[in-house]
Amino acid sequence: MDIFENSWAGVVTEAHLSNLTSLKDLSIAKYSLSSYLSLVFNVITQWIPPFKLRYIKLRSCQVGPRFPAWFRNQNELETLILRNARISDTLPEWLSKLNLQLNELDLGYNEISGRVPNSLKFRPQSTVYLNQNSFEGPLPLWTSNVSALFFSTISFLGQFIRTLAKDMLTLDLGDNRLSGNIPEWIGEMMPSVLILCLRSNLFEGKLPSELCSLSSLYILDPTENNFSGAIPSCFGNLSGMTYDLDIHRYEGKLLVVTKGTELLYENTLSLVNIIDLSSNNLSGEVTEELTDLSRLGTLNLSINHLTGKIPEKIGSLQPLETLDLSRNQFSAPILPSRTSLTSMNYLNLSYNNFTGQIPSGNQFETVNDPSIYEGNLCTLWASVNNQVQW
């Protein structure tokens, strides 16, 4: 039964489901994450369904606050989605005892607490969304079969785990309390990863050169950590941001910062190419090799301690839409060659030591807000009339 994307309202009880003895797929969903949920499941705890489901997909329906007990005999499940279901409970013990082999588990946008049991089992190349919950403790150890992990905005502690799947495509550990270094084995253990999001954790140390072995990577987001040292010059080897690898890309959901705003990408994530190293303690000059990433769409290096000049070849990055170099220690003139950045619609060079004349024409006529240049040695602004004062 598939009634996705409808405006259902009211209360669903066991009486609505009791005669559906052959039911295999229960899919009721709206993709909105609205706080108002118009469809409420009110099924008694003792009810035993007459069917064995393979697919449960309930999005933006009120199923909670308790984890639905009528699932406890559904031992043929392959997909379990209870996203934005108002569940404020722990994962029940019977969920592990069902001995499921899931292709997809999505419990995102609830208030589920406690530890994630290591006994959950998944089929190869499965997908798990646990983001936006209140789980605690270390990362679960069942990740060796999971190719897409979305664990953002939980409260996981600890460090990277070595049980990650070799065919991992997406790893989102953003907004947790993970610490330590990025391990040197990351290139060996996750050679196919496309998306690596480590934002807003407690990671530290240098960005290891082993990241450069992730040749298919097209989103690298370790922002808001304590990484230090220089940007590895081998980042220019990230060929996922150089060649068109769309046929291998994973279509998932990820909250990313681009154009100065947090955006949730759901169906167009494969069109995004991002390096976001902002809000760390990186130092040194920006490596010229970054300008070899010909498909790069967003480069955010803001709030670091970077020095020197902007690489002159950055003007060759025609797909570049977002460039944020603010709050660093860059110096030297702003190079006119960057006027070839015809796709740019967000630029921030504020609070550096730039001097000289701002390039005019092309994209600089669409980013004419003077605040993007403030805090430099001179107040610089290219107006739409190309009348530059400095």
TrEMBL record:
InterPro entries: Leu-rich_rpt, LRR_dom_sf, RLP23-like. The keyword Transmembrane applies. GO terms for cellular component: membrane. Its main location: membrane. Pfam families: LRR_1. It comes from the Eukaryota. Keywords: Glycoprotein, Leucine-rich repeat, Membrane, Repeat, Signal, Transmembrane, Transmembrane helix. It is found in: Membrane. The keyword Methyltransferase does not apply. It is a single-pass type I membrane protein. This is Leucine-rich repeat-containing N-terminal plant-type domain-containing protein.
